[in-house]
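Q: Give me the 3D complex with adenosine-5'-diphosphate.
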Amino acid sequence: MTKHTETAGQYPVLPLRTEVQLPGHVGPLEIGREASVRAIEAATRDDNLIVIVPQKNPAVREPSQRDLHEIGVRAEIVQVVKHSPGRFTAVMRFMDRVRVDALVATDPFLVASVTPVQPHSTATKEALTAMTVKVRDYLAAVVGDALTQASTDKSDKKDSKKASDDDDDDDGKEAAKEALKAKAKDLKPEVAKQAILAMTDPDKLVDAAVPYLELERDDLTTLLIETDSMVRLQKILPSLERRATVLRLKADIGAELEGESSRNHRERVLRDRMRQIQEELGEQDDNADVDELRKKLDDSKMPDEARAAAKKQLSRMGQMSSSSPEYNIARTYVENLLELPWGVTTEDQIDVSAARAILEAEHSGLDKVKKRILEFLAVRKLAPDKHGPILLLAGPPGVGKTSLGRSIASSLGRKYVRISLGGVRDEAEVRGHRRTYIGALPGRIIAGLKKAGSMNPVFVLDEIDKLASDMRGDPSAAMLEVLDPEQNKDFVDHYIELPVDLSKVMFICTANNLDTISQPLLDRMEMVELSGYTALEKLAIAKNHLVPKQTAEHGLEKDKLVIEDSAIKEVIQSYTREAGVRNLERELAALCRNAAVRIAEGAEAIRMEKGDVAAALGPVKFVADDAERTPEVGVITGLAWTPVGGDIMFIETRTYPGKGDLRLTGQMGDVMKESAQAAVSWMRSNAARLGIDHDKVLNSDIHIHLPQGAIKKDGPSAGVALTCAVVSAFSKRPIRNDVAITGEVDLRGNALPVGGIKEKVLAAHRAGIKIVFMPERNRKDAEEIPAEVRADLDIRFMKKVDDALAVALGPAPKLPDPEPAIPPPSGAGPKPTVTLPS
Ligand code: ADP
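A: Here is the predicted complex, encoded as structure tokens.
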């Protein structure tokens, strides 16, 4: 933003929901909305200037220009204090009124161009002067009285010893407020009075009077937006008159009290006033606050080092005013220390057969994974003090990684905390912000411990593969430290600044994609792979877990809703296309909602069958792609592995007259492009054998395209499929639509093994493919494929591209020969009979 040498210009805007501020004083503002926090941050980076504008309707969350009053106040940010997480208090000096001419930006915060408000008046100069003098005299009286009473209250506070709460004195509040104001400003009544009497500007006078009056929001708004000085004076005068009378009366009562009451009574009254002041200002008695924290500290099992740090802050707090920013920073810190579960651990109950029962009860299938987890728990039982390996559950979304983590925690009797790392870019999110930052907080690890309430919880670090790193630091380096048994005994969070022992925490990580996890991090972990489910497995999970869970969550009793297998199968086949069961669970929830509505409308009990699904979920979302296709020249189904499970992928090839160029589109990565080049080279070198006309190859360009261009595709595993597509395009032999192929190819036409076989085959099965070709050397991986899928699919192994070509490519269609038949040499055959017209 531009540096401001004069009022007019562009400033960040702070919209105020309920408050209205006028110029001429210093005061705090609470900031909670994110855009407001941004605006404050932007201003503090620049020249600390900001424009404060009240909203017309406090209910609007994201105000636009028409939701704001046209006049606001330019203010200088003096200090920003963190209050509680996400809330700040900014101390501002409110400077002058400005007119908001236009909002020049609304995101990430409002920015307005403003001009100064030009005061004017329709009244005569004399009338204006007379009115100004009247207001000034009243104001001087009010200020003088208010400050005098405030300073008396201040000395009262000093010598009173005992508190009492059996007296009620409303006026006490008022004087008390003044007392605090005076305390803040430390103004001598006489000096302040003289300063008022020296004022001649009617508008400044009005602004100066506002802090001494208790005006309603509407009155304050009128004073803010009114530009006629006379009207402003007239508006404020009655309130000033009232205030002057109240203060006079109060002074009289004070004098009485002085004269006749006993010292005890007086003390009681004053104590009570003090309590009211504090209530009114939302402050507590500083000492009570510190005492309470000190007591909590005594009860806490904090180690000595932490205790010393907390004590130091508490003694600092004892010497500060509770309204000072440092006080609140120190207090939040001590509270954070107290909230950590120092010395609290839960006792492990490692009973392998009980753990097996829990795992079985909460998850269908996953036999290998369960076996691996039980082994892991058994080792823990035998060697509880050894740092076991960290489990990494890897697999597509919705296969139960996170919920397995929860089951492990419950089978150990430990607390469970899920820490999501997806999209964490800033190291501070893991390790906390230093306390010097506005709004500093501990990082997610410490926050997780606080949430767990024990030092030995199970932390599920979700999506560890999505830790990103950029210029804000490298969160994976911080994670490395967290997971390193050599270092995590003394983990130091930037906010806490004390070593915290993480060595008893059991970490379980989850990930979709191993490629994006840094090698050092991967080395610390022991991987357990989970793969996608077959339709049959999904059916079992839905019947045993998802349907009972969703019906219960929707308040449907058992006999109220029955979802038949046929309906579940229909949802699996036609409404979801995923490796896991996340969307399946969502769609089943939609079925439950539908049933809940019908039952609320009077239906007795509902039984859903296949035919009822469309009525509840709408038209079918997925049709088996291949069922729709017919065999085509140059189009083949490949298989892809993605972090979210396997998928089928079409490869399209076209040839047209040209110079033998190769064009590749559809966001292919470099490795895949090289595969395509190898495919073309192999086809060329084998053209004669494949019955492809060599001249045609020389005089044609080739275009290979992978639809769904928005998705990046890479890797060598489409090699064989690419080769088949190219051969098909040149030989004009169509490719069977029920065949899918995966495998790398080399220039000799060998089919080389590839990864992700299980996910790819499951995807092919989901898509309705009948024959899957994979390299011979992937035979062992095929054993992982569930029996029901193997029974349904014809899985073939190939050593060479030719093996796939022989099955996937049909015979060339009999096309009319485009070349004219070469006439036989003259004289060799029967002479044509020529009939001439007679
Ligand atoms: P992930 O962490 O792998 O993305 P979740 O653990 O969030 O998956 O699982 C999504 C939903 O599917 C959860 O409600 C979970 O309980 C359920 N779920 C997944 N796999 C199974 C399974 N094998 N048995 C029972 N429920 C399962």
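A quick observation: Confidence is low (pLDDT under 50) at residues 155-180, 817-838.
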